[in-house]
């Protein structure tokens, strides 16, 4: 497990993409590498947006406030998977499913992107406030399959999201 802590500013997104791409071994196929980096960009952009929100009124919970964002990349040593986890101080839950988005809208497609590119994904609240959003990718594509289901990825990734 390798972690990076970043301030909730837009420049952190590009820095995290470059960092994550440098961690992926050479044997990770380009399409998987591209998916990992694109999903990380989406997750971190959302984290920057919500972590940079004004702090809530006193006693209202941890909905933002400018705390660092934690980015975690786990490359399965057995060669099967790459996992991402992005933790931010926002308590705002993710919708249970993608929602309809107007064609001209400049946001709202994140869950569609996760559904299309990640084998599995989800989120977990953090004990001390905030949440961890994670995504799991197969390191190699299986011919004739969309790469989803049948793998116990949640336990691998949630280990990084369990801390408080």
Describe the protein:
With about 160 residues, the protein is of the alpha+beta class. It contains four helices and five strands; from the N terminus they run βααββαββα. It has a five-stranded antiparallel sheet, sandwiched between helices. Helix 2 (about 30-50) packs antiparallel against helix 3. The radius of gyration is 16 Å and the shape is globular. Residues about 55-65 and about 145-160 have low confidence and may be disordered.
Summarize the structure.
The protein is α+β, with helices and mostly antiparallel strands. 32% of the residues lie in helices and 21% in strands.
Feature tags:
alpha+beta, five-stranded antiparallel β-sheet, single chain, 164 residues
**How many helical stretches?**
4
Overall mean pLDDT: 78
Secondary structural class: alpha+beta
Helix content: 25-40%
How are the strands of the biggest sheet laid out side by side? 1-2-3-5-4
Strand content: 15-25%
Which geometry do the CA atoms define?
globular
Question: What is the straight-line distance between the termini?
Answer: 17 Å
Order of helices and strands: EHHEEHEEH
Number of strands: 5
The value of Rg in angstroms is 16 Å
The unreliable regions are 56-66, 143-159
Largest sheet: 5 strands, antiparallel
């Amino acid at each position: 497990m390798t972690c990076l802590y970043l301030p909730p500013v837009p420049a952190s997104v590009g820095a995290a993409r470059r960092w994550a791409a440098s961690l992926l071994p050479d044997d990770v196929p380009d399409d998987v590498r591209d998916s990992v980096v694109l999903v990380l960009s989406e997750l971190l952009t959302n984290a920057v947006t919500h972590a940079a929100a004004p702090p809530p009124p006193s006693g209202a919970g941890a909905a933002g406030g400018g705390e660092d964002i934690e980015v975690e990349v786990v490359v399965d040593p057995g060669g099967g998977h790459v996992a991402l986890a992005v933790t931010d101080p926002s308590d705002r839950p993710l919708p249970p499913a993608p929602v309809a988005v107007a064609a001209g809208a400049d946001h709202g497609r994140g869950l569609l992107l996760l559904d299309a590119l990640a084998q599995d994904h989800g989120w977990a609240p953090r004990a001390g406030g905030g949440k961890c959003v994670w995504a799991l990718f197969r390191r190699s594509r299986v011919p004739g399959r969309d790469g989803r289901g049948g793998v116990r990825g949640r336990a691998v990734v949630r280990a990084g999201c369990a801390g408080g």
